[in-house]
Amino acid sequence: MNLGDRLQAVADFVPQGSRVADIGTDHGYLAVELVKSGKAKFVVASDKNTGPYEAAVRTVRENGLADNVISVRLGDGLKSLRPGEVDTVCIAGMGGALMVEILEGSPDVVETLDAL
Questions:
Q1: pLDDT of residue 1 exceeding 80
Q2: What are the residue ranges spanned by the domains of the chain?
Q3: φ, ψ at 88 (rounded to 5°)
Q4: In sequence order, what are the beta bridge partners of 21?
Q5: Number of C-alpha atoms within 13 angstroms, CB side, residue 74?
Q6: pTM above 0.85, yes or no
């Protein structure tokens, strides 16, 4: 799968062996690539909109990845996560103010992270 330059740059920042949340996953490409490349052991691919959520479900299914490896969730920001569930969060493709709002909205999750 070719991520393109922007998503590849995000993937390159993810520490090896991470448990990752891809917030605003859109189509789920980043989540799939992180697992297939061995970079992530587990990914939560989350989006707050039904269309992107359904696209991510399709992408995960088409790539033969099960729910125990990539969990696709319909949810707003970090609210779809439990504290400590992941150690790395990727938030890309949205404005800085929205990113701050997402992080400030779930301080219990943010304080358990190793990487953003």
A1: no
A2: 4-110
A3: -135, 135
A4: 44, 89
A5: 8
A6: yes
Looking at the DSSP assignment, which residues form a beta bridge with residue 42? 19
**Are the C-beta atoms of residues 3 and 37 closer than 8 Å to each other?**
no
Specify the pLDDT at position 91: 95
Query: Alpha-carbon distance 70 to 35, whole Å?
Result: 8
pLDDT at 93: 85
SS3 of residue 115 by DSSP:
strand
Considering the domain 4-110 in this protein, what is its CATH number? Answer: 3.40.50.150
pLDDT in tens, 4-32: 899 999 999 999 999 999 999 999 999 99
Q: Give the integer Cα–Cα distance in Å for 88 and 26.
A: 18
Phi, psi of 101 (to 5 degrees): -60, -40
